UniProtKB/TrEMBL annotation:
It is an enzyme of class 2 (transferase). The keyword Cell division does not apply. Its EC number is 2.4.2.1. It holds the Pfam family PNP_UDP_1. Gene3D superfamilies: Nucleoside phosphorylase domain (3.40.50.1580). CDD domains: PNP-EcPNPII_like. Residues 23-269 form the Nucleoside phosphorylase domain. This is Purine nucleoside phosphorylase. Pathway: Purine metabolism; purine nucleoside salvage. Belongs to the PNP/MTAP phosphorylase family. SUPFAM superfamilies: Purine and uridine phosphorylases. The purine nucleoside phosphorylases catalyze the phosphorolytic breakdown of the N-glycosidic bond in the beta-(deoxy)ribonucleoside molecules, with the formation of the corresponding free purine bases and pentose-1-phosphate. Keywords: Glycosyltransferase, Transferase.
Length: 271
């Protein structure tokens, strides 16, 4: 069933001119400006792509954009899907499968996250070295998953080491602070309690968010190398916790975004 749906989605995008992209990019909350880097963009709104979910979060645009950055063909998701919108894990990861079928060989992911590690501050960026899945399920838990890849997907190194090292090198060269750490993915949409922040720290999380892990699991299943960066938009100190301000979170993401765009653009150039 899913194979037929993927074929229809891909055929539609190919008819629009989406031709063999090399790199897929998923843009997180408040991180949509990288679209402006694309030359000769072709857009496909999610509601026009057969079998694609629809973005329901107000600060997610809801379109796939194809074009070139630094001479490489890219396809970019402006607006992703989350469990907290009522989607299931197959819906959330469907676009990754579509981009893979279109031909991508690498996947870049960005997200906005809260800093659990108190050495990290608002406006910092964190390179994901590993993750903890607290979303209560797997996007690979369906009957015919073996038709798409090994059922028992290996997750010993979910984030590509060569791309991580190259990003660190780029950050150092340009004087950009890039932390490293473990990302915990929760369901949301409510923010965490003080006790939950304490738990996350105890189990080894450096940052927490509500996305990314399902996409990373599917990308690993498909054999796609991944690099992921979190923009840290708030500090989750359970001993000094203020009520969350979503407007401030978006503002911090937007302020930090140019550095993330610079990192991704340079990485694309070096691939």
């Amino acid at each position: 069933m899913m194979k037929k749906q993927l074929e229809e989605s891909v055929a539609y995008l190919q008819s629009k001119g989406f031709d063999q992209p090399e790199i897929g990019i998923v843009l997180g909350t408040g991180l949509g400006k990288m679209i402006d880097e694309i030359r000769d963009p072709i857009e496909a709104h999610y509601n026009h792509i057969p079998f694609f979910p629809l973005a329901t979060v107000e600060f997610h645009a809801g379109k796939l954009v194809y074009g070139s950055i630094e001479g490489k063909k890219v396809v970019m998701m402006q607006g992703r899907f989350h469990l907290y919108e009522g989607y299931d894990l197959l819906d959330i990861t469907y676009p990754i499968r579509v981009m893979h079928q279109l031909g991508i060989k690498k996947l870049f992911i960005s997200n906005a996250a809260g800093a659990i590690n108190l050495n990290f501050k608002k406006g910092d960026m964190m390179l994901l070295e590993d993750h903890i899945n607290l979303q209560g399920g797997s996007p690979l838990a369906f009957k015919n998953v073996a038709a798409f890849g090994e059922r028992f997907a290996d997750m010993s190194e979910p984030y590509d080491v060569p791309m991580r090292l190259k990003l660190e090198e780029i950050a150092l060269k340009h004087g950009i602070s890039l932390k490293k750490g473990v990302y915990a993915s929760v369901v949301g949409p409510q923010l965490e309690t003080k006790a939950e922040y304490r738990m996350l720290k105890i189990i080894g999380a450096d940052a927490v968010g509500m996305s990314t892990v399902p996409e990373v699991i599917v990308a690993n299943h498909l054999g796609l190398p991944i690099v992921a960066v979190s923009v840290l938009t708030d500090e989750c100190d359970p001993d000094n916790l203020s009520p969350v301000d979503i407007a401030e979170i978006i503002a911090i993401a937007e302020k930090t975004e140019p550095k993330m765009v610079q990192l991704f653009r340079e990485l694309i150039k070096h691939l």
